[in-house]
Amino acid sequence: MTKEERHLWYDFLKGLPITFNRQKVIGPYIVDFYCAQFKIVVELDGSQHYEDEGKAKDIERDEYFRSNGIKVLRYSNLDVNRNFESVCEDILKYLK
């Protein structure tokens, strides 16, 4: 896990009363975090996700998940580092 993934996991997701899995295999992909109860994927994006090739791969991945009824929540590593509480609050909105 990246530094940002560890931060989100140990300082937020792990303590929730809802089960999240880390590095979960879903079809042909490995996601950062997955909540089966709410069918939500949480992805933390580093700089490679903002290059053309990374963007194209993310669009393909996200479409795969959407077609399987899974909501994808994407946050940049910068957001996790600078706006951690906002990221956590946003994730909570989808867990109701």
User: What's the CATH H-level superfamily name?
Assistant: VSR Endonuclease
Low-confidence stretches: none
Largest sheet: 4 strands, mixed
Corresponding CATH architecture: 3-Layer(aba) Sandwich
**In one word, what is the shape?**
globular
Q: Could you tell me how far the N terminus lies from the C terminus, measured between alpha carbons in angstroms?
A: 27 Å
- CATH fold type: Endonuclease, Chain A
Q: Can you list the strand order of the major beta sheet?
A: 1-2-3-4
The class by helix and strand makeup works out as alpha+beta
Number of strands: 4
> Which H/E pattern describes the elements?
HEEEHEHH
> Compute the gyration radius: what is it?
13 Å
In total, how many domains does the architecture comprise? Answer: 1
For the residues shown, what is the average pLDDT? 93
- DSSP helical segment count: 4
Q: Please bin the fraction of helical residues.
A: 40-55%
Assigned CATH class = Alpha Beta
Q: Beta-strand percentage?
A: 25-35%
